[in-house]
Predict the 3D structure of the following.
Amino acid sequence: MSAPARRTIGVIGGSGTTGIFDGPSTRTHRVATPWGAPSGPVEEGEVGGVRVLFLPRHGPGHTIPPHRVNYRANVDALRALGAEAIVTVSSVGSLKEALAPGTFVLPDQFVDFTKQRPTTFFDGGRVYHVSLADPFCPELSRTAAEVGRSVGTPFVEKATYVCVEGPRFSTRAESAFFRSFADIIGMTLVPEVTLARERALCYVCLATVTDYDVWAERPVEAREILETMRRNGERMRTVLAALLPKLAVPPTCACARALDDAGV
């Protein structure tokens, strides 16, 4: 028996992710979770006939730094409202010459260099050890790659995202070290991706490169970063408009069974 079609998609937006609905939002949800309040109210609307829930990761007005985001509340709130998959948009720095500012990237692996964030829903009681060998939903990643090509904004695939604590940027020594094993660097992927797996949700990260990390000879100025973010935001809205309706299909991935064999 095939799985039922997805009815609701959650979107967690980073800097510059706005205006994704076909029209105005139809409802605003203020959600309480066992882990506290999410980053802000969850806006509900439609994209191509699909129910979409949008949550700004850093809160309205971008007031929450990456190390203070309540990732558990964010993921749990979207799931409580019916999300069966989560699409996230994240701004990242580049660790490779070939990944110039403006490049869109679909990471398939990550390395965690965060230090003080709660990383699991399972803090007591029954213990679960979920597999993160392949952290991102292969079906969502494949569909995102196809959509990117179809709208003229191709994604670079098979990239490793190193997640650091923030809010500071790297030293030159750290950046050189990260370059030896990763392609992009950011501050928000972890624990978002691990929590989605613990809630048995499909998850994909649409990463947009805003600048070269500090390993590059010429540091990028804030003005250039903001302009790149603006252009990335315009292109990302085009990608999301085409992508989200395609996700409302019966899933063939194993994400919904992530906890089946993970309990101790």
The longest helix spans residues 222-246. The longest strand covers residues 202-212. The domain at 8-257 is CATH 3.40.50.1580 (Rossmann fold).
